Amino acid sequence: MPIGEPGQGEFRNAVVELRNLHIAAGLSPLMTLREELTTNDDLRDRGGFDDSTRDHFLGLLGKCDSVRRHVTHNPDSLPLGDKIAKAIDADAVIEDAENPFGGDDIQMGSGGLYFLPWDLSGADPNIPLANSLEWSNNGMLLLQAINRSIVAWTRLNSKDRTRFITQKDSMRIYGHYQEVFAFLQTFGGDANRVDVAQLRATEEPRGPENAPNRKSELPGDQLGKAG
User: Fold this and answer.
1) Residue 143 included in any domain
2) Are residues 137 and 185 in the same domain?
3) Quick one: 160 and 206 in the same domain?
4) What end-to-end distance do the CA atoms of the chain give, in Å?
5) Same domain for 164 and 221
6) Which domain holds residue 34?
7) Using only C-alpha atoms, what is the Rg of the chain?
8) Pair 162, 25: CB distance under 8 Å
9) What 3-state DSSP class applies to 134?
10) Whole-model pTM?
11) Same domain, 105 and 90
12) What are phi and psi of 116, to 5 degrees?
């Protein structure tokens, strides 16, 4: 399934064709966070993940929120004439606007539709769907919170704008990031690790049917007679 086709699984409600390129900019660090999450073996540990893993994810989440702030429509109060004079100064250098990105102050031209540059169908091995992962409960909870954030970005009303997202839409995404932040703080870090003593049934070397407390479990003296 090529990029641009509708998503599958947890992404089935994502809008993959939209107009606002700043939404793709906002999604970019979030997709990086998800990639880091899905390739980190700490998320398979049922006991939780340590401080260094939690702090790494928190740093990436901070980058996500920084870009969200950058793409939020927030024109400043400087006189437009002064900004134009600065913009056409031949001796000046290009710099970040006071409320980056620039362009909040005037009506810009309309842009066309584009497809998201990520394949959310599960075909991209770098963006696996949740049902293909063998993770701990905490890891799956964190992944689903990130997945919901990705879908929420694509469903903003601002998707029909050419650039920037409204302040209300920005606060909606901020709410999703707060949820991810809360999960990282609640379940992540050395202080929140729990002790797990037993293997899961699917981790038993002879298969889940040989796990304790299963009706099909055979006594030790009958194992040689089975089959």
Assistant:
1) yes
2) yes
3) no
4) 43
5) no
6) 9-196
7) 24
8) no
9) coil
10) 0.76
11) yes
12) -55, 140
The number of folded domains in the chain is 2
Specify whether the backbone of 203 is left (phi greater than 0), alpha (psi in -120 to 50) or beta.
alpha
As a whole number of angstroms, the longest Cα–Cα distance in the chain is 91
Please check whether residues 167 and 222 belong to one and the same domain: no
Query: Residues with Cβ < 8 Å from 133, sequence gap 6 or more?
Result: 38, 139, 140, 143
Per-residue pLDDT of the chain (227 residues; tens, 9 = 90+): 446 667 788 999 999 999 999 999 999 999 999 999 998 877 777 767 778 888 999 999 999 998 998 888 776 555 545 545 554 455 644 454 455 555 555 556 666 888 899 999 888 999 999 888 777 778 888 999 999 999 999 999 999 988 888 888 999 999 999 999 998 988 877 776 766 767 667 777 877 777 787 776 666 555 555 54
Report cis status (omega within 30 of 0) of the bond before 115.
no
Q: Do residues 144 and 171 both lie within one domain?
A: yes
Q: Would you state the structure tokens that stand for residue 127, as one six-digit string?
A: 């963006």
